Amino acid sequence: MRTILGIIALISVQTVVAQQDDSLFIRKLADEVLTAGKAYNNLRTLCKTVGPRLAGSPGMYKAEAWGKQVLEESGADRVWLQECMVPHWERGKKEEAWYTIKGEKAKKVNMDILALGNSVGTDPKGITAPAILINDFNELEAKKDLVKGKIVVYNNIFDNRNTQTFKSYGESGAYRRSGPSRAARYGAVAVMIRSVTAAADNHPHTGSLAYDTAYPKIPAAAIGLQDADALIAALKAGKEVNIYYRSDARFYGDTLGHNVIGELKGTEFPEKYITVGGHLDSWDPAEGAHDDGAGCVHSIEVLRALKAIGYKPRHTIRVVLFANEENGLRGGNKYAQEAKAKGEQHVFALESDAGGFTPRGFGFTIDKEKLERMQAWLPLFLPYGVHQLTAGGGGADIGPLNRALGTPLAGLTPDGSRYFDVHHARSDVFEHVNKRELELGSLNMAILIYLVDKYGL
Question: Are 263 and 399 contained in the same domain?
Fold first, then answer.
């Protein structure tokens, strides 16, 4: 009995000592990030000098050059561009949309609107058609015989009852992703949705749709919430509404893009990789500050800070600025495909793609037993604001690694209260990022990468 108790006591003492050493190292890391961090200024340059950077646009190439330069300046041992073909969709001229109400003398009512990403455009002269209100997909099925020749207006409410805003985004966003093809199945000529947001302003929010090739491709757009609610109120009141919509959106041929990759070479396991990243592309109406400029500078800062304090990683740490997450996921797929083709060992991948807000935790796609062991690290995070290490998480760009290689994943989980106020909208600009919050995100990601590198999973 004494022997067993002695062993337990020894292990406990060793654990305490190890955590004390880790705590001291993390304090040094925190001092570097919080007093000499570069993430905020890097984000300023990305937003204000590069700006919007949708796949295939001139901004994409400017962003790639920016990413390569910043990774080199941050101390990466090696930086390179990984080629991948990306889609090239353009919005064209600013969209126009208005409606009139039968029997009312008021002039046409203009709407603030954005074509959904990957949408086809209208005839150059635009289209005019009667509107029909559809509250959900069940109602679409019930009214399918009334849809032909009409513009379907989806009343896809962003449910404020959900404390986790990503749940509301998933529910409401379904009408953006598949709503156009489901309406086209019954002969609709166009679709308009409430922007997928609970914001109090009238900025429309774009984002990708996914056409079902079994049905005609019809134009689709998102309306600013104030304008959408006024239109929906008129339709709910039984008024006959005609909508005019014009869009020049169209696809061009695929073009060459790149993942931007920088790495710190591992000292013990150089052929085993830990990936940390965000996606470099953004939607065209705004600067992509939170989505996902923040994730890119978070990841670069992990590398920079570890290098700055002299840390020598055991595994090779790769920072990847992924191409084309928004409307194709070509960068994430290419990274995983090449890793599999080369037989690379990817032991862990972390992504930041939920904004630069105050970090609350990390979500993991990992075995239950491994997660339980990692949860023993939580006391090391608590002084810096992270209080949850939970099951379920990752990121769109690193998801292919998990599917191709079984790589364990994690995603940074910031406070999501404000993320969908600016997500995919013109309001996603540098001025809406808080320096302290951004730095804390970088710091907590660096802590996690350090612990995974030191202890494994």
Answer: yes
**Pick from 418, 277, 455: nearest CA to 353:** 277
Fill in the amino acid letter for 5.
L
Query: What total number of domains does the chain contain?
Result: 2
> What length is written for the chain?
457
Q: Are 63 and 248 in contact (CB under 8 A)?
A: no
Is a pLDDT exceeding 80 seen at residue 220?
yes
Q: Per-residue pLDDT tens for 51-63? A: 999 999 999 999 9
16: Cα within 13 Å, side-chain hemisphere: 6
Report the DSSP pairing between strands 241-246 and 127-134: antiparallel
Q: Amino acid identity of 380?
A: L
User: In the chain, how many H helices and how many E strands?
Assistant: 14, 16
Alpha helices in 398-434 (DSSP H): 399-405, 419-422
The residue from 222, 248, 274 where one domain ends is 248
Q: What value does the mean pLDDT of the chain take? A: 95
Return the closest-CA partner of residue 175 out of 129, 131, 207. 207
- Torsion over CA: 328, 54, 126, 180 (sign): positive
Domain match, 97 and 226 both = yes
Tell me: do 261 and 341 sit in the same domain: yes
Identify the domain containing residue 180 by its residue range: 92-248
Instruction: Output the 3-class SS for 57-121.
Output: CHHHHHHHHHHHHHHHHCCCCEEEEEEEEEEEEECCCCCEEEEEECCCCCCCEECCEEECECCCC
**Rounded to 5 degrees, what are φ and ψ at 196?**
-80, 85
Name 130's bridge partners: 242
Per-residue pLDDT averaged across 195-224, rounded? Answer: 97
- Asked, for residue 114, whether it belongs to a domain, the answer is yes
Looking at residue 326, its pLDDT comes to 98
Phi then psi for residue 100, to 5 deg, are -125, 155
Query: Which is catalytic among the residues 64, 287, 325, 439?
Result: 325
* Residues 110, 85 within the same domain: no
Identity of the amino acid at 247: S
| 271 is an active site residue | no
**Residue 273: is it exposed, middle or buried by C-beta count within 10 angstroms (0-12/13-18/19+)?**
buried
Taking the C-alpha atoms of residue 368 and residue 85, their distance in angstroms, rounded to an integer, is 37
Q: Which of 248, 263, 278 is the last residue of a domain?
A: 248
Q: Where are the beta strands (DSSP E) in 95-174?
A: 96-101, 109-110, 113-115, 127-134, 151-154
- pTM of this structure: 0.94
The identity of residue 440, as a single letter, is L
Cβ atoms < 10 Å from Cβ of 238: 7
